[in-house]
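In this supplementary section we document a worked example of the pipeline. Step one takes a protein sequence of length 331 as its only input; no multiple sequence alignment statistics are reported here. Step two produces a three-dimensional model, which step three serialises into structure tokens for compact storage. The input and output of this example are shown verbatim.
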Amino acid sequence: MRHFCDLDDEEQHALGIIPEENLDIEKQNPLHKSQQPSKPARKNESRVSVILLDQGLFTVYKRLFVMCLALNVTGLVLASTGHFPYARNRAALFSIGNILALTLCRSEAFLRVVFWVAVKTLGRSWVPLFLKTATTSLLQSLGGIHSGCGVSSIAWLVYALVLTLKDRDNTSTLIIGVSSSILALLCLTSLAAFPLVRHLHHNVFERTHRFAGWMALCLLWAFIMLTISYDPKSRSYSKELGSRVVKSQEFWVTVGITVLIIMPWLTVRRVGVKVSSASGHASMIRFEGGIKAGILGRISPSPLSEWHAFGIISDGKKEHMILFQQHSISL
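The serialised model returned by step three reads:
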């Protein structure tokens, strides 16, 4: 469920949304936020040092990242040494498959099904507590698989490009150019997701991830159509695709990626809101219509740029609400 809200200045102030031009004022006057002194920072620790040193070396997220990357690296080694001929002949498919996997890890519709199955299966009194805890930790750290598949897709695409360049007589310059552009966009999105960039410049990360991702998807469709229609014998493109498209595994995987990316945008609605501030620390935004409590809701004053996720409070009948911590959103 997503909401696109038009907020006036008073409502944005109540929600704690800080315009970009006011960020410097907020930094210069830390008492402006709540008129109360903030908690003292730990001595000699900058934000950068916290990001680099206080994240833990063996978190579930990082274990999933390493596991995902290790599996793909193993596949790459086997393919490059001739022990995995299918992967060698379908390197681009493995790259696209990794993109499908990382998209699934961020698909709310897919994750809702996964969580529902997990609760129905493990949410019983006789299931051991350690199994419930381990499953919960795993589901909360699927971002590790998302990141691992992102890096792996780049590795497979580089491998596919190397093989293509070695066999340039059987491909076209246009196909090489499109695949190189996709590689550049994937590298850009991965660099934008690097912890230092993501934490220190979060809006840059959000917008780069979104717009570069959309551009890469469009180029991926161009790549699929070009590779299916290209005839290396005549060195020309055929207009009669027909059965080639249906039989192409890359085509169907790309269809899955496209559907997963489009689905969330079908739930976006522009809605009216009522904002109230019960204290200097929290604000409540209310929407019409009751829904099931516990569902995740996303709101944005600028839907193409960024989204902010919050838990939903609802009576299940007339309205649902989101509770904000004051100044929790910085635009």
